[in-house]
Amino acid sequence: MRRRATGPTMGRVRLLFADQLGPHFIEDLPADEQVVLIESRQAFRRRRVHRQKAHLLLSALRRRALELGDRAVLLRGDSYGHALHTAGIDPRTLSVVDPTSYAARRWVRAQGMSVQPSRGFTLAESEFAHWRGARRPVLEEFYRWQRRRLGLLVDRDGQPEGGRWNFDADNRLPPPRQATSLGLAAPWSPANDEVDDAVRRELDESDLPMVGVDGDRWFAASRAEALTALDDFVAHRLASFGPYEDAVMAADPVMAHSLLSVPLNLGLLDPREIVDACIEAYHRGEVPLASAEAVTRQILGWREWSWQLYWSMGEDYVRLNALEAHDPLPEWFAAV
After folding, report:
1. Which neighbouring-strand residues pair with 76?
2. Is the CB of residue 248 less than 8 Å from the CB of residue 85?
3. pTM beyond 0.90, yes or no
4. Phi, psi at residue 326, to the nearest 5°?
5. Is 307:300 a contact under the CB 8 Å cutoff?
6. pLDDT in tens, 114-170
7. Are 140 and 160 in contact (CB under 8 A)?
């Protein structure tokens, strides 16, 4: 991959983190502007990471670099700062979409990078703060406000389609008695290739503190794969997702779930892409309202709610442990 030296007279170059890999994270850039991606060993040394996660992140970063072609500058280093310094890149010449943790946000500002508003969610942190005001935040109120604000599954008067805001009470069916699966088609799965093989070889030789074992990659790790996974979910499992979203089957780990959380959290999909695809399937008469609403509630309600509370409640919020959960992970976790 071509690398270009940077200097103080050079225009801004976008630094992408590993959860910012979709097109919406560079849509504001000129088509020929370069993009920096970094494989940081420090990111895997802070705490032990499951090997499958390490494989997935490295595979996704490398696939994004391949998609970008000559625009990509893929760096490797002990840390983000070390990688930039080794490549001769002045951090002050970089722009970045606001990252997803307090520590990362402090770092990019300390480096003098140009920071763009966060993406990958439907609502800016400032908009949530305005909505919240002095009120005690309640998830259901937030979810209804989101639906009205975005005009999703509501009529012209802002009332919910079907006369109900959520179908959660209906979406609690137990698994079929004496069945080992829901009987749905197996979900689409990516074809492991030379990128995956190279990552596995490097992980075999690394001294990174990992747990667990690797295997075939289950989840989408590129934009094209993510879109294929979304289409597969809508076509084959969305209709059954609502009724069984809270059920668990030991012999059917996927059931009707989407397997889209990973590509969504890698930034390969925008949340509206998923919600809009599900609502469009409902409007075409292909899936029941309860299933389309269930996905909408999970993404525009719960996922967005968790993200906004992380920022709204302050950094100490993430250290709270109201359930006093201190037990370590079971030993079997390191063997799967």
Report:
1. 39
2. no
3. yes
4. -130, -5
5. no
6. 999 999 999 999 999 999 998 899 999 999 999 999 999 999 999 999 999 999 888
7. no
28: left (phi over 0), alpha (psi -120 to 50) or beta: alpha
Under 8 Å between Cβ of 85 and 111: no
SS3 for the chain is CCCCCCCCCCCCEEEECCCCCCHHHCCCCCCCCCEEEEEECHHHHCCCEEHHHHHHHHHHHHHHHHHHHHHEEEEEECCHHHHHHHCCCCHHHEEEECCCCHHHHHHHHHCCCEEECCCCCCCCHHHHHHHHCCCCCCHHHHHHHHHHHHCCCECCCCCEHHHCCCCCCCCCCCCCCCCCCCCCCCCCCCCCCHHHHHHHHHHHHCCCCEECCCCCCCCCCCHHHHHHHHHHHHHHCHHHHHHHCCCCCCCCCCCCCCCCHHHHHCCCCCHHHHHHHHHHHHHCCCCCHHHHHHHHHHHHHHHHHHHHHHHHCCHHHHHCCCCCCCCCCCHHHHHC
Closest alpha carbon to 295 in 255, 224, 238: 238
What digits encode the pLDDT tens for the residues 77-97?
999 999 999 999 999 999 999
- Alpha carbons within 13 angstroms on the beta-carbon side of residue 267 total 23
User: For 271, phi and psi rounded to 5 degrees?
Assistant: -55, -35
Sign of the dihedral defined by the CA atoms of residues 203, 38, 45, 97, in that order: negative
Is beta strand 49-50 parallel, antiparallel or unpaired with respect to 35-40?
Answer: unpaired
For 288-313, b/e burial (b = at least 16 CB within 10 A) is bbbbbbbbbbbbbbebbbebbbbbee
